[in-house]
Amino acid sequence: MAKPQSFYLVCLAFSLVFNLLLIFKLYVGREWELSWSRRAAEEAEYVAAISCSGHGKAYLDGLTLDGKEPVCECSSCYGGPHCSEFLPGCAADAGSGDPLFLEPFWMQHASKSALVVAGWHRMSYTSADQSYISAELERHIRKLHAIVGNAVTGGRYIVFGCWLNPTSQCCSSCTVFP
């Protein structure tokens, strides 16, 4: 008679633990769900799906129509609302260094190259150690130059230039000085 009773106790204990986990997920689990990053990804996907005839792109932070819908920003020699109109007499600048030829590769690898950065991410111009460049970024810059072999970084300072504020940590120049 002890066996069935212990079996029922184990089932009761399991049921209680399982129900507590479900209640915990119901009331506390929402805090673990993505919120702003999920919305940011959905907005980026929406804008990326805007068709610009293969001769332009719409950007989430780009031009808008009446402050609402993002519009196509056309490549050189194309115009119109969807970049489908070829502009005759247009001179293409082959020496500009614009890396648009890499675009198909990055579009194929969109999920591996996507970045989501919160607007408040590293808003200060300095880090905790009062430097203008993070130790991790400096380490990666030195590693990159060592792999490529285009600069000697040992015993040198890294001078890092960025846009107006560090929120958009986009490198405008990265030079190694003695």
Automatic annotation (TrEMBL):
UniProt keyword Transmembrane helix present: yes
A single GO molecular function term of this UniProt record: carbon-sulfur lyase activity
Assigned keywords, A-Z: Aminotransferase, Membrane, Transferase, Transmembrane, Transmembrane helix
Membrane spanning stretches: 6-28
InterPro entries: Alliinase_C (IPR006948), Alliinase_N_sf (IPR037029), EGF_alliinase (IPR006947), PyrdxlP-dep_Trfase (IPR015424), PyrdxlP-dep_Trfase_major (IPR015421)
Alliinase C-terminal domain ranges (all copies): 93-162
Annotated ranges, domain Alliinase EGF-like: 35-90
Pfam families in alphabetical order: Alliinase_C, EGF_alliinase
Domain of life: Eukaryota
Designated name of the protein: Alliinase EGF-like domain-containing protein
Organism whose genome encodes this protein: Prunus armeniaca
